[in-house]
Amino acid sequence: MPCIPRRRPQLVLHGSLTTFRRRCGKDSCHCATGEPHETPAFVYTEEGRSKTLTLRPGEAAEVSAAIAAYESTRDELEAAARAGIAALKARRSGGRP
Ligand SMILES: [Zn+2]
User: Fold this and answer.
1) FRET label pair with 17: which of 44, 45, 52, 81, CA 20 to 30 Å apart?
2) How far away, in angstroms, is 79 Cα from ligand 1 center?
3) What is the Cα–Cα distance from 97 to 91, expressed in whole angstroms?
4) From the CA of 1, how far away is ligand 1's center (Å)?
């Protein structure tokens, strides 16, 4: 039987993407006079506290897509829930006992 490689499941993340900017303090570094160093980070809430995970190079795009995946699914679920309320209300006005 051929081994069919399974696609890695889509990452889903509830949070936001941010960028930390800092100057490293070395006088010879470009950041002393120019643009500061930038590190992308994922910000999320765990047990009511805001947490951050700094991201590795190349992870920002994946994390951004994962946040979009969460938000679109959440929006679909919210729309379905609103439709549920409308359906329940329609039963009341539909004259059914
Ligand atoms: Zn620097």
Assistant:
1) 81
2) 47
3) 9
4) 54
Count of domains forming the chain: 1
Is 5 a domain residue? no
Domain containing 41 equals 16-93
pLDDT of 45 over the 60 cut: yes
In a domain, 71, yes or no: yes
**Ligand 1 mean position, distance from CA 7 (Å):** 39
DSSP string for 41-69: EEEEEETTEEEEEEPPTTHHHHHHHHHHH
Give residue 60 CA to ligand 1 midpoint distance, Å: 21
- Min mean pLDDT across 3-7, 57-61, 77-81 is at 3-7
CA distance 52 to 46: 10
Q: Is residue 3 part of a domain?
A: no
- Residue 22 falls inside a structural domain: yes
Query: What is the model's pTM?
Result: 0.74
